[in-house]
Design a protein that fits this description.
With 249 residues, the chain is of the alpha+beta class. Helix content is 29%, strand content 27%. Helix 1 (7-30) crosses helix 2 (37-50). The structure holds 2-amino-4-trifluoromethylsulfanyl-butyric acid (MF3) and cobalt (II) ion.
Amino acid sequence: MVILKLPEEIERLKTSNRIVAEILAELKDRVKPGVTTLELDELSEALSRKSRVVPAFKGYHGYPFALCTSVNGEVVHGMPSDRPLVSGDILSLDFGVIYKGYVGDAAITVPVGTVSDTAERLMKVTKEGLYCGIEQAIPGNRLGDISAAVQQHVEAAGFSVVRDYVGHGIGRNMHEDPQIPNYGVRGRGILLRPGMVFAIEPMVNEGNYEVKVLPNGWTVVTEDGKLSAHFEHSVAITENGPEILSQMQ
Ligand code: MF3
Ligand code: CO
């Protein structure tokens, strides 16, 4: 069941997602060779305390950290570690908070030092794919319009869309209906209505779309070991079109 949000609920989601965006921006500024992802995780917790919000991921189905840090061939749910980042890595930072009972959720992928042309292009295409999907988040469209727009952009660039993990509705719970695949068919799926709030989050692989989960039970990696990128925004569907709640102003 897709839960429509009232204007006052959207206001809370705006606040939670704005805080997520601000914290992601601070984390991004810290990323450089030599920094560890555990340090970034600790910073995300400190910044959450400062903003008086609760990290949404920590304890979620037993996840032990506030932040997901997915490096290179890690797709999503990478766990912070004491391995220092090195120039050439790409790092996905996925973060969420709860503010007055409402969840914010967003992700970015950033370069560490200097990265390959392929890595740059993968990040650029993934971010563009997210925005192609967001453009379709308008009343009267269907869910498949979002999915197909992401897929088309990504595949036209020669990359592939992860199938096993998808975006989601968001509100009082981090994961609400509907599921939002990054592949699909235009004109199919539920009708989009004002008051729906979606976390749209393409995960894009350099090689094929197959992924597997590491023995730690969390970290999703590409099966072929090639790079993967991930961008996510939480977006409200309004009468006037999509409103990105997790955008840095
Ligand atoms: N942004 C991720 C998602 O949308 C965060 C969930 S990871 C977990 O699914 F650690 F919280 F489980
Ligand atoms: Co999400």
